[in-house]
Amino acid sequence: MKKFFLIGIGLGLLGVLGVLLVNDTSKFEIVSPLVSFKKTQSKIENKYSPYTFENLSRKEFKEGEIKLGAATRFEKNYTTYIFTYKSDDKTISGMANLPFANASFDSSQDKQGKPQKFPVIILLRGYSDRETYYIGSGTEKQANYYADQGFLTLAPDFLGYGYSDWEDQDILLARFYRPVEVLSLIASIESLPQAESQKIGLWAHSNGGQIALSVLEITGKAYPTSLWAPVSLGFPQSVLVYLGEPEVGNIVKEKIDEFSKENDPKKYSISEYFSRIKAPVIIHQGMADELIKTSWTQNLVNQLKSQGLGVEYYSYPGLNHNFNNIKNAAEILRQRDAEFFKNKLKN
Known about the structure:
Elements: H1 2-14, E1 20-22, E2 28-30, H2 53-58, E3 67-74, E4 78-87, E5 90-99, E6 118-124, H3 140-148, E7 152-156, H4 171-188, E8 195-205, H5 207-219, E9 225-228, H6 237-240, H7 246-262, E10 281-286, H8 294-305, E11 311-316, H9 329-345
Parallel strand pairs: 6-7, 6-8, 8-9, 9-10, 10-11
Antiparallel strand pairs: 1-2, 3-4, 4-5, 5-7
């Protein structure tokens, strides 16, 4: 089981599951992710160039609209909705929790009849198997907890999941586009009347941690961020370390080797841009994590602290990658996060 999960997390980093297409009969068709490169392509400008960290940092993300769909859960302090938004011309779905000022559905407006505004936490999940995925998978418990604490939460499914459009069949383009999906969501938060758009935090687990770090580096914004067992290696090491079985790993490695002939991988790697991070960070790491080496996380902590950033680091003896092998352990992490976000976003 561990072997297959290792393969999954590596492919999840690449977005390689985008090569599995579900047809109308729910059968899977394997589509080769190998893409031939034109000899005329420049090393400076090609289809990957828009997604270097430098170019994304200069890109203007225009405000879009977050559309609330069906309500799926009604709680005392919040309601859960399916939401959609646009990233370029692609639709992405997700789970939104909209809190109420009090325990009444009628109290979401202030005395002037204007909607009550709440700080926003964007939640970025780790690897998830498409066959078992559901909207809110990997983020639901955290989102519900933070919404109960008075935060508006948005958890995008990412392209290829939920009701989202399909991701690019090129496994590297699918990977490099992940931060764009989040940056497009951030740019659209202003469209939600209940959102306090100047107070935004990030929560991320595993592969989602790689995306969150990318967003912090690209924007240079001080979004308070919680990282649970983040993938913090640079590219392509963060992919190569999880390749696993040769029949899958060789395809991915060939793709990266081909990419590296025309492109500089460092321009797409979080490890090259840690100095751009300006945000306060809280990091949680299980010491029995079977997928993330504790030395990787410690190195991330050291890198951020060396820049004078506020970093809270908690290590948990015996806890695994998902923090779920010891009863109620994740509750401790959520409590610490809630306090962290309240201090950074509500004061």
